[in-house]
Amino acid sequence: MSVTAAVHHQTFDRYTARCRLPIALMQQQNWSNGIPVIVFAGTKAFVCKAHAERYAPPAFDPTIAIRAASVTSLRSSAIAVSSLFSVAKVPNRHVPATTVSLEPIEIAANEINAILKHPTSQRLLQDACRRLIIHEACVVYLPMPSYGPYMEKEIKSLKFRVQRTAPAGYVRIVRSTRVNLLFAQETNAPVLVDHPLQPLPEPTQRVGGLSKELAQVEELIHFALDHKDIQTRFGIQLPKGVLLSGPPGVGKTLLVRTATRNLQESGKCKMLLRVINGAEIISHGVGEAEATLREIFHQGRAFVAKAVSNVFCLFLDELDALCPQRDTSARAHSRVVAQLLTLLDGMDNQSNTRVLVFGATNLPNAIDSALRRPGRFDREIALRPPDVEARRDIFLVHLNKVPLPPNILKNDVANLLATKCIGYVGADIASLCRQACVLAVQRHQQSLEQVPRILRFLRNQKYSAMYWGYSQWPSSISAEYDDNAYVTPQDFAAAMELTPASSLRGAKTFSKDSSATVTWADIGGLEDVKTSLQQAVEWPLKFPETFERLSLKPPRGILLYGPPGCSKSTIVRACAFASNATFLTLSAADVFSPYVGDAEAAIRQVFRDARAATPAIIFMDEIDAIVSKREFAQGGSGGSGMALRVLSTLLNEMDGVEVADGLLIVGATNRPDMIDAALLRPGRFDRVIYVPLPTTEDRHHILKIHTKHAHLANDVNLSLIAEQTPYFSGAELENVCREASLLALRESIHAESIEMRHFTKALTCVQPVSNATSIATYAAFQTPE
């Protein structure tokens, strides 16, 4: 039976997807004009809009073809219109589409790309899509634009595959719908209507930093394929669901896509991967989301039933948005959770062992607990932020296509960036490489024809909207470029300032730029304190093999106490710079709030940010103002209720530090007697270090540091000044040098040097805070009786 015999050849019906039906049939079925119907003509199926016809014979326009297997359930209820075709009403309610992505097929890539790059042709194709009703399983025929390139060729129509719709299901393209016409790849091959609903991604060389997790996912799919009879032989149910959890951008979606691609390329099985965003299938119509889930599972079971080597994988991204806790969610979400539970429980027969469901979320505790029991999501794989080695592997993957200078090795750049980019996940690293290329292009914006390799790299980043302007650059750029047309390490350093780690956005930290760098050489004296901090922070990072060989564990917390101004904060900052660790600060102003629960939430958030960006240092300055000391004389209490809750939260978070390697808590105070004893036990603040006032030799060294850029007169004796300043702290000595400079400036605006008399007068203006009594208090705390 020929389909063309039933096609309406009137000009006004061509490319409109209309189906002309007898008016009597329309009245009998109570159908209105424009409702979506499925037209069955032989073995093929089409999506059309029904229109009543009084005089002309029944006919339809085959503009939109749909995969026949996806509408098999409707064929039995189809109404025969003529000997050529039958129709069935689409049971699901269609909604206006927000976004539709169409991919060209069965046409030369250079020809279709030239058409899509032409602005007028692209607009004409987008306008031709208006008012069409499509599905993700459809192939759409659009008319050849009447204006643009390749007009001399006899191309009647262009063929596009619906790659994605938002929301999922049957949607109507309206005026506000964003129609994305994707460029064709060079390896664009003919694609039939019976191909999978959503194509697998392009081949990926490897997934950097996730080799262990990738092996686990592939093993689960292999197990379902190679041991299909294990359920009947041993009475064991194979895993049906896998929950992937981890921070945003860590690579959960890429992991599943790469695993399915690798298995299909191996030739061992035929994979069908369906990716659904959790929020896409939620609609206003009652029961539409549940019907969409049932249709997806029906398609998966039908696919695996075709051959024993077929495997269907359903990937539910943002599962927490689709299946939240039922006791706190809306009724629509509760129905979706109940439907998904029913579908997962129905995957018990032998053929359904080759139907796997993957879920991904960055909020695993927000998912309904009924989904996480065995028999539904049996396996949970937690993806942690990449460490240095994993970041190096990710950089090597992305640097393969980045043009680097010939004298710089890719491995050296990857090692350097992996060490500096603490807290970066895979998506951050990809964005960093793109941003570095953009900066390199901007450096050469006066001669863009000399940077084709950089533009070629950016053009491949088609899914990043912020680089669309560069990806649309003409491909006919001259292949000749000078030696400066490369992405340099300076471009990566500048890109790091523009692309911070996503886990640290909003966290209170400081930028490690060259102007704010603090080194150990900037701190005079305190050699014992420096050594203690280096042993606690730097040595575990620099010599991990030695620590493991000697079964040593780095301390979890360090408390620095001493008189005010003794460089406690500066020492911690220098330690963070020297170790390349993430440095997070927490003060009383950040914690306390007039609202109940905000203080505890602030502490938990700081620890959460630090665990996501290890190695990290959390510095609590003036910790005595953050937590209060409980007095046993008052029944074990002391301070306000908020202060006690803050202390309890801090104690609990510090006890949890053991699960996060590379996290160090450093506190600083000048009132150690106000610190609660529970904080000072081993396991919390393991080391309590006294930061004393500088000795005479230390004061001489400090004076040298603060006057190294000043022009001193010949009569200035820094050793004598150091001897005349007992009980002076480092901050007070810095203030003495500053006051002496101001005195010289007040005498003459043209002063050339600072004289000894200026220092002598400055000593009379600056008085030390500490005295013998206060030092004795610290000594008593250091050596209690």
Offer a quick outline of the entry.
With 785 residues, the chain is an alpha/beta fold.
Average pLDDT reading: 78
| CATH topology group of the largest domain | Rossmann fold
What is the CA–CA distance across the termini?
104 Å
CATH architecture of the largest domain: 3-Layer(aba) Sandwich
Structure description:
By secondary structure, this protein is an alpha/beta fold. The protein folds into 6 domains: 84 residues, Beta Barrel (Barwin-like endoglucanases), CATH 2.40.40; 87 residues, Vcp-like ATPase, Chain A, domain 2, CATH 3.10.330.10; 170 residues, P-loop containing nucleotide triphosphate hydrolases (Rossmann fold, 3-Layer(aba) Sandwich); 88 residues, Helicase, Ruva Protein, domain 3 (Orthogonal Bundle), CATH 1.10.8.60; 160 residues, P-loop containing nucleotide triphosphate hydrolases (Rossmann fold, 3-Layer(aba) Sandwich); 74 residues, Helicase, Ruva Protein, domain 3. 37% of the residues lie in helices and 16% in strands. The protein has 28 helices and 24 strands. The strands form 4 sheets. Strands 1, 2, 3, 4, 5, 6, 7, 9, 11, 12 and 14 form an 11-stranded mixed beta sheet that branches. A 5-stranded parallel beta sheet has the order 16-17-18-15-19, with helices on both faces. A 5-stranded parallel beta sheet has the order 21-22-23-20-24, sandwiched between helices. A hairpin with a 5-residue loop joins strand 6 and strand 7. Helix 11 crosses helix 13 and helix 13 crosses helix 16. The radius of gyration is 35 Å and the shape is elongated. It starts with 17 loop residues before the first strand and ends with a helix. This is AAA family ATPase.
